[in-house]
Design brief:
By secondary structure, the chain is of the alpha+beta class. The protein is built from 9 helices and 12 strands.
Length: 330
């Protein structure tokens, strides 16, 4: 009797125990902008600097997921590292507008609730992505801009810095070139760029985060796609999370981030197929260039772009860990 009872208990425990392959899927992808990235003109030391900062952001975000943290926390951690790097067009490395001022935009979206927060035209917020999250979590609004957004930051204890914090000689030289009507050198990324992260956590929730300094020499309070939900950022647990980078006006006109989600939900395309159709088809058809990082509800990752390069990285629980800059060699 005792032996048969123990055997039955052992069988029950075996059936109830999860298989080794059934552990929750976690995934994260990041980008640091897409555009003209000339392989021959980028020195080995400069390329390594980009790869090092991308790796730090990717691994920090993945560590949050591996520790059971939320996809939103992971995306924010990754983006903040890129915002604090002077290499990328966001936060400290942001480009200058026509007045010689850095104006920053950012947004976040939660795939579980479809809640979102965004900010535009910031001049003193060290990490705009933090303020975008606060707009989502501590206000009834989605998008705050300019002086109102910075007043909201003051009220909620967000770190403010003097405008000199964002000044880099490299970006100032780019502005002077633009003012003279000169093209950027072959070693430069281009007049626009962005950083972003998308993630899937162990609970199955998706999140997206995007931050940018916009376009070099931009005028009249120009705002691009990064803080526009559905254009540069989107997340929906029913499909995917998207962060975009490139010619913002075209991403807005094509509603590219939402387009990828819609292609998956309503046409049943895979994440790779949807990203490819949105970038190589719709965006390119409008005359725009750039790229996206996308993670779907099963943790599959797509990193699609129609430019010479895109600073990017991906990591997941299946063992994938990738840092890349240029188009893959056929």
């Amino acid at each position: 009797m005792l032996r048969s009872s123990l055997a039955a208990l052992s069988l029950a425990l075996l059936v109830a125990a999860p298989a080794l392959g059934d552990s929750p899927m976690i995934s994260i992808a990041i980008h640091g902008g897409a555009g003209v990235i000339n392989r021959a003109a980028l020195s080995a030391a400069a390329e390594q600097s980009y790869r090092d900062d991308l790796a730090r952001a990717l691994d920090a975000g993945y560590a949050v997921l591996a520790d059971g943290g939320s996809s939103m926390d992971a995306a924010i951690v990754a983006v903040k590292i890129l915002e604090d790097s002077p290499l990328f067009n966001a936060g400290r490395g942001a480009v200058f507008n026509s007045e010689g001022v850095n104006e920053l935009d950012a947004s976040v979206m939660d795939g579980a609730t479809l809640r979102a927060g965004a900010v535009a035209g910031l001049r003193h917020v060290r990490n705009p992505i933090d303020l975008a999250r606060m707009v989502m979590e501590r206000s009834s609004h989605v998008l705050l801009a300019g002086a109102g957004a910075e007043e909201f930051a003051l009220e909620h204890g967000v770190e403010l810095v003097p405008r000199s914090w964002f000044h880099t000689d490299r970006r100032w030289q780019q502005l002077e070139q633009a003012r003279r009507g000169e093209r950027l050198s072959a070693a430069e990324i281009g007049y626009y760029g962005t950083v972003g992260a998308v993630a899937l956590d162990a609970a199955g929730n998706l999140a997206a985060a995007t931050s940018t300094g916009g376009m070099t020499n931009k005028r009249w309070g120009r705002v691009g796609d990064s803080p526009i939900i559905g254009a540069g950022t989107y997340a929906d647990n029913g499909s995917c999370a998207v962060s975009a980078t490139g010619s913002g006006e075209f991403f807005i006109r094509g509603v590219i981030a939402h387009e990828i989600s819609a292609l998956m939900k309503y046409r049943g395309l895979s994440v790779a197929e949807a990203a490819r159709e949105a970038i190589q088809g719709r965006l390119a058809g409008l005359g725009g260039d750039g790229g996206v990082i996308v993670v779907d509800k099963d943790g599959n990752i797509a990193m699609e772009f129609n430019t010479e390069g895109m600073f990017r990285g991906a990591r997941d629980a299946r063992g994938r860990r990738e840092i890349a800059i240029y188009q893959a060699t056929p």
